[in-house]
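The authors assume throughout that readers already know how a fold can be written as discrete tokens. In essence, backbone conformation is discretised, so a fold becomes a row of integers matching the chain in length. A single example would do more here than another paragraph of explanation. For illustration, here is how one protein appears when written out as sequence plus structure tokens:

…
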Amino acid sequence: MNKIQIEVLLVEDNIDDANLTIRALKKNNLANQLFHVKDGVEALDFIYGQGQYAGRNTVKPKLILLDLKMPKVDGKEVLKKLKSDVLTKDIPIVMLTSSKEDPDIKACYELGANSYIVKPVEFDKFQKTVSELGMYWLITNQPPNTNF
């Protein structure tokens, strides 16, 4: 595969939420280099260039938007794996989920989440929230300059 810089990796099993997120990021020209995967297994395969993504150049994304409740491997397991690996621990990971449960929030921060955002139910608020988090993490935030 060609070397492609992915700025945003969206890990979301709900296609409607994924489409809303992508639309909100595109509205502010923040989704030009976005890649969407549907579960935790696919996310880890993508990041590490294995499975169906074997041979993919493993340039790290600038941001991972990670859902919590997913089939196969859930968001907490993906978060734990990525934040415990020296090669991936510096990738900002924003939990973008519908869970408002305090144990979920606490566990994600303990595992190294950089932010925890509860998805607003209303369309306009959802778009505004995703736009603001995209602007912050892709434009305002200054990450370290590291790669695999």
Notes: The domain at 8-136 is CATH 3.40.50.2300 (Rossmann fold). Helices lie at 15-27, 40-48, 75-83, 102-110, 123-140. The CA atoms of residues 17 and 116 lie 16 Å apart.
